């Protein structure tokens, strides 16, 4: 009874929190309700189907790059967390691995990347053409020619709770916020994301930044919020030898987003998630001409499937273009040309640094999704800042002015899917709270 009452109280707190997430977003004319409806009922169901196709479920990534910033590695990021080769290979356990604490063993199991691919799939991916034109990339691009770059089946490695936490995990985000975000040096974040800070003063200082720098901070904050919602919504609730039970962890969600516990930052983090969605949605609407060309194909070797997937892709992009309240990217870098160009280059370099920080993540499954989502967001920014080049894309033949690699395409759509899922999860959470709140009121009235 006590646990049920505690859950109900937590749900009521979360319900009040979600009531705060409404209305217009800062720096744009779009509102939360329009995005909710558009994502949950129009775009996401189609996108989910597309992401299950062979072209989008296999992502080539190098998870073995050394951290370029520091030498220490996560305590749990050892053998079992390492990438397994595609072919069947026996795993040898060291004495050190056998003496891990139970918590670290759990993090290790949950954080390991499943890279098993069938022989048929291995043969197919070798046929997929690879192009690379990343001179204007916003990300540190993995060397797909490297022997350490391997294909990972994203459907076998869902983004969810892995047990990766503590100072090592907090250090990643602190470095991102402290060293790579445009903000006054007086703004400091507490080491733990669950600790209290000076939320209101931080918000006021950020309000004094130019729109581009505020946008950069909100994109990183939105990405952080998206990841935290995934972990809270797909939390390991029960782990037995019979089964693993995954579901919503209300307490975890409350700790990360409650207005009181975060000193007002929580609701802003959730709104930044919607801002991130809006930026990525705008990129999809702008890149339609690149994918509309007859020469472009989602090549996997299966002609029928490839044709159907391209049709579905174009429907999604046309749907994205029809969104009524798009973000106006022309507000970016619109001042003095020299200053605007410098700011744009700083913007790009900051983001490239953040993509490099992902090689320092100790949990390899977290590293996988971190690298994919930063590359996806970087690709979205590349699209938004390439409007003239996209307009000049020829209807046929090679596109020299603007090009997307297969890796960029896969990361772009999967990253957008990662951003859409938390918005769906917030709707589920609202519905769950409505139901529980109603039942609780009914029981109270009956008594």
Automatic annotation (TrEMBL):
Cofactors (names): FAD
Signal peptide interval: 1-23
Primary location: endoplasmic reticulum
Chain positions recorded as FAD binding sites: 160, 162, 173, 221, 224, 256
Keywords: Disulfide bond, Electron transport, Endoplasmic reticulum, FAD, Flavoprotein, Glycoprotein, Membrane, Oxidoreductase, Redox-active center, Signal, Transport
Disulfide topology: 76-81, 363-366
InterPro entries recorded: Ero1 (IPR007266), ERO1-like_sf (IPR037192)
Protein name as catalogued: ERO1-like protein alpha
Source organism of this protein record: Ornithorhynchus anatinus (Duckbill platypus)
The encoding gene: ERO1A
